[in-house]
Amino acid sequence: MNMKNTKKIISKILIYFVLILGVLFCLVPLYWMIRSSLMNTVEVFMMPPRWIPSKFMWENYQEVFDTLPFGKYFLNSFIVTGGCVVGTMLTSSICAYGLARIKWRGRNVVFACIISSMMLPFAVTLIPTFLMWRTIGITDSFIPLIVPAWFGGGAFYIFLLRQFYLGIPKDFDEAAYLDGASHIQIFTKIILPITKPALAVVGMFAFLNSWNDFLGPLVYLNSEKKYTVALGLQLFTGSYRGEWNLMMAAACLVLAPVVVVFAIGQKYLVEGVTMSGVKG
């Protein structure tokens, strides 16, 4: 074995070692949360730590639902998140198509204004937006949380889809024009089928952003029966601050849909991020 091969082997060992450390750094806290959710309070803080519960206490999860109406919180979150995901995917794709595939005067100026809105933090526009919804009289409802997603969805999503659409050859559009197709037909029958990975990425990001949103529901929702899981988890941790096993069980329940969505869409996530055109 020569020196060159030895260096390659050593470099691969170091790379795998660093990757394994990174995986452990991410997975150990997750495992600790899951194992704590299946223990009693005494075992959670036992020293030395017990990595496997002596008895799997699945009733902790049932107690979470018995203590607070988490079923209602989940339903509220799915309503808000579903509305945001559908609105974001629909309107951001339409906006991106108009900015990427149609030539019109002022297109670049409009796109620059959209991108510049990304520099405004959510907290800056929170008060005037809240005053607007309060003036209309529809606070304490899901409307302020869902409706904005149906007006562009967000500058980041428009930017992501626009860059993806720019990588699609214009030959498809020109061939469709010669066949008499309209912009709606080109968008629905040519562009959308090609851009499924990018739309999946937008949908995943929109789901995570809406599902984990805490500040929006906190500002607009007053009735406890309309709380989302983010507010429900905060209410639960405030009421049962010393019951760490129950708090971990509630956290696992809130995290479960996120894990499921990522597990289903990870293939599209990688493909949508790396793909910059059509498949060859």
From TrEMBL:
Principal location listed in the UniProt entry: membrane
Alphabetic keyword roster: Cell membrane, Membrane, Transmembrane, Transmembrane helix, Transport
A Pfam family hit: BPD_transp_1
Transmembrane segments: 13-34, 73-97, 109-133, 145-165, 186-208, 244-265
Coiled coil: none
Occurrences of domain ABC transmembrane type-1 (ranges): 74-265
Keyword Transmembrane helix: yes
PROSITE patterns listed in its UniProt record: ABC_TM1 (PS50928)
Membrane topology term: Multi-pass membrane protein
Source organism, top-level taxon: Bacteria
UniProt subcellular location: Cell membrane
Family per similarity comment: Belongs to the binding-protein-dependent transport system permease family.
Protein name according to UniProt: Carbohydrate ABC transporter permease
